[in-house]
Amino acid sequence: MMKKVFINISLLLVLFVTFSSCKKSLEKQFNNPELTSQTSLSTLFTAMLNSDRVRPAYWNQRTYLMPHAAVYSQTATFDIGNTVYQQNDNYTGNYWSDFYYPAGNGSGPMAIYRTMEKTFNALPAAEQANQQVFMQAAKIFLYDQASKMIDAWGDIPFTEAGSLETNNAIKDPKFDDAKTLYTTFIAGLNDAATFFKTASLPANVSASFSKQDILLTGSTDKWRRYANSIRLRMLMRTSFVDEATSRTAVTTMLNNSAEYPLIDGGGSASYSPASNDVLLQPLTNYTNTPLSALTEINSYSAPDYMLNTVMAPANDPRIPVIFDKYGQTAGGKFTPNPTYKAMPITFTAEQQTTERTKFAIIDSTTFLNNSKLPGIVITAPEVNFLKAEAFERWGSSASAATAYNTAVAQSVSFYYYLNSISPSGVKVSAPSAADVNTFLAAPTVAYTGTSTDKLAKIWIQKWLNFGLLQADQAWSEYRRTKYPQLTFVAQNSNFPLPPTRLIYPSVETGFNTNYGAVKSKDTRTTKIFWDVK
């Protein structure tokens, strides 16, 4: 059963036209303390970070990731049917509006940031210098979240969004050009990283920042690395549409690690995700798990290509912590399936229903019953995959091999870490270094072949690493690289295959008078600007 409480949005829209600007109505409706002018920057900052759109919370998994990005990237399974590739307007509209206005649980980063700007600008100059750390960190987080909006929709309202928070004016925000916003974000992330390089905080500000920073516990070094790493991700995402710019910026970063430190785990295969990655940990009183989100819409079976084509042939050591063999119950006795095998993507709806128990499912300890799963912002494996691609395309293939092998090995460490933190279930001992090296030498994994072969291996392993928890990133990278080479069964409907972008939800198109400027591009087959390969 759905667990999110809906509000009477239509009533609010009659008064305030567009979701992107409806702060005061929301304050009245919810008595929301997040957006009052008296609220401190530090409190607003915490509210911004405390996001159920980052953590693997029920609503985000059940209504946004699993029925959309995970289907379009095949990082989770789905029920075959005529509407399987159709976007659910209510659900994507909810995700859209959760970016623009706060309704609890960290939603509304756009509105919260605008309120922070107004609060900051009202401070005396001396106090602004002390409080700058909150604004720079919030900017990094906002740009990260906004880039995911662009990756899903393309042009979005941004520069004029939040006018009510900024100057108490109700204004329909224009849709900003997606590529221009990416350029702005990339430059802003570099500025933020430069700030954190030399940031020296007074004792009282340092204590407050450490307390309120529920993402990185006040570490200026990790905020610097976070900014550089998201910038690297964005530069690589645009590297086929503007290769010269990306190549110059990325090679500068990778050739000077002291000046541009990254979330890369120090290049250690057996790194510590808890210490090195950017992970939004669950609150201490959080008890929910992904079980309902994945089982309600049958997203819990093992994906065909991932298990059958990529992992099983390589005897991938991640299999026991990502999947469970599952099995059948007869006469009150449960008999596990003999091997890890995924249900074929070509099954009909009837076959899915009758044959599901004969195939592997998502592991219950690591995923289904794990209330300690963090929200994944960016990890060392992803960063090293990005480095590997950059080295292979623009530098040394030997350096690419080192980064690739490190990334794959770190992915093994990461998934065993997720298994180890689960409060229940069977924990699996991590493989030895020798076992991981054997895996890295498997023909389908080993960094061999032509440059095209090597890039394909980088992209496939990165897609696998994203998995269902980062299905949005997996979908973006699938569209950018065209790997893995997935098979999609066409449906006899108006939505025969997955879209190349989400269409704008009706909560925006029905009320923002600037929609006309982007209406011609608002089709499910229009490509995001970086999707040119």
UniProtKB/TrEMBL annotation:
It comes from the Bacteria. It comes from Mucilaginibacter galii. SUPFAM superfamilies: TPR-like. This is SusD/RagB family nutrient-binding outer membrane lipoprotein. InterPro entries: SusD-like_2, TPR-like_helical_dom_sf. Pfam families: SusD-like_2.
